[in-house]
Design a protein that fits this description.
- The structure is a homodimer.
- By secondary structure, chain A is α/β, with parallel strands linked by helices.
- Chain A folds into two domains: 7-104, 60s Ribosomal Protein L30, Chain: A, CATH 3.30.1330.30; 117-263, SPOUT methyltransferase, trefoil knot domain (Alpha/beta knot, 3-Layer(aba) Sandwich).
- Chain A has nine helices and twelve strands.
- The first copy, chain A, has helices spanning 16-26, 30-34, 42-50, 70-75, 84-90, 126-138, 156-162, 220-225, 243-263; strands at residues 7-10, 36-40, 57-61, 78-82, 99-104, 117-121, 143-147, 170-175, 187-190, 196-197, 208-212, 228-231.
- The longest helix of chain A has 21 residues, at 243-263.
- The mean pLDDT of chain A is 93.
- Chains A and B meet through helix 6 and helix 9 of A and helix 6 and helix 9 of B.
- Chains A, B: Keywords: Methyltransferase, Transferase.
- Chains A, B: One of its GO terms (biological process) is methylation.
- Chains A, B: InterPro entries: Alpha/beta_knot_MTases (IPR029028), Ribosomal_eL30-like_sf (IPR029064), rRNA_Methyltransferase (IPR051259), SpoU_MeTrfase (IPR001537), tRNA_m1G_MTases_N (IPR029026).
- Chains A, B: GO terms for molecular function: RNA binding; RNA methyltransferase activity.
């Protein structure tokens, strides 16, 4: 195997970078301690590049490296090539990817008072969080505020479910509910049992949607801060929707309200 | 520990029922071979009872059994109590539940030509499938038709994400696309790139929504069968939504169209 110019080669499982990668790939909160994020696979890496992000390190398996697009290596500050077996052992996936990027964790952004926003109140499931970020980005929301107790947003499972949405949003984690006082956009709480029916409601635009814990919903204290409460009619009579499904419906309705404003 | 009247006790890991339970809990397609479904945990079991389903077997851990609600055991044809460690080893979950039900797999229902329906075209992800079943039940859809190549709908992960929706729907698996000719309701295909914008479209009610593979969407052959194509405006410019998020938005819009018909 030719050794690429400028690329360093890792063939020991005790290499400090590999140790960090294993933590980042397998421990959802490791990025907070290490200050770095691991993007596994070409889809997420392409999405980061498309947003102009410069990776700290591009990582390739030895067998994949010769066929890797040059832009991937050129885009990164540093390139490393890792023995195939060692890179496979990094992954938490059933089908490990042969490449990935290490990013510096972006500094926590300041809260924008006027931005269309989504507030996550102790959301627990990584797949739900990623799906909500994806919907938020699709429907023109600019920032996602994760209150304390919410799943770690830069964790690998959330990144995978987010499919690149992370790179188009301001993600503000570890926020206390009191900090929401800084928001100038109206707070709209999703509810399973009270408020206006979504299909009849006039929605403010922009606004900040409050989405709650999978089992408990939005906390009563947070619900009390909201100027409007919205529930989704369920003619089939089931007790509740999945929170990411409810979020998609509300954020779409809100985005459509924005489209209607723009076109009128 | 008192031995309950009528309950048999299992303390060997080689017990044939335990072997079957391990298969059912850990192999997504095992229910098709064994003709039985494993419901783990009280939420799913309560949901089945609420729909009038009579479990073939109620299974309890030895330490949980004395505090188990009597209706759970009384509802089942047979009750078994299993050593705690053995029951834990059955589960595929990080936090195994101390009880569960075994159901006979319902016979495959006949296709109802006039029912509001959801058609799954090679959907791959169990969490997405479960979330879609939940949304379908919530918004008044009556049957879900899974075309060949779709994830197994009675698999444990789909059951968990479905949160009981399985018991309120006609689930028809392993269907060839030609069988959709039996449907008299109009076919509406979701699309990422063509058709009417959902927020401006007039939706037929009832109808059958076509939802596609996570990466490829609805197949071209199936798309061609649809009388209407619907896409969701994404003012944020992301390339696509998660399929369960898109489904929630479309099924809600369709349900709301039904509500509007009923009230007019």
């Amino acid at each position: 195997m030719t050794s690429p110019i400028g690329a360093s080669h890792i063939s020991s499982r005790d290499n400090p970078l590999l140790k960090d990668l294993r933590k980042l790939a397998q421990d959802p909160g490791a990025y907070r301690r290490l200050g770095r994020v691991w993007l596994e696979g070409d889809h997420l890496c392409r999405a980061a590049l498309a947003r102009g992000i410069r990776p700290a390190i591009a990582v390739f398996s030895e067998s994949f490296w010769p066929s890797a697009p040059a832009e991937w290596a050129n885009s990164a500050i540093k390139t490393v090539v890792v023995d195939d077996d060692l890179l496979r052992a990094v992954s938490g996936l059933e089908s490990p990817a042969p490449m990935g990027f290490v990013l510096e964790l972006p500094p926590r952004p300041a809260l924008l008072p006027d931005a269309p926003s989504v507030v996550l109140d102790r959301l627990q499931d990584a797949g739900n969080a990623g799906s909500i970020l994806r919907s938020a980005a699709a429907f023109g929301f600019k920032q996602v505020i994760a209150l304390k107790g919410t799943v770690a947003l830069w964790a690998p499972k959330v990144l995978r479910a987010g499919m690149g949405a992370h790179f188009g949003l301001r993600l503000i984690e570890g926020v206390e509910a009191d900090a929401l006082d800084e928001l100038k956009v109206p707070l709209v709480a999703t509810s399973s049992h009270r408020g206006d029916w979504l299909h009849q409601a006039r929605l403010p635009h922009p606004c900040a949607w409050l989405l709650g814990h999978e089992g408990q919903g939005v906390s009563p204290a947070l619900e009390a801060r909201a100027g409007q409460h919205i529930r989704i009619a369920q003619p089939g009579g089931e007790e509740s929707l999945n929170v990411a499904a409810a979020a998609a419906i509300c954020l779409h309705a809100s985005g459509a309200a924005g489209l209607a404003q723009t076109s009128s």
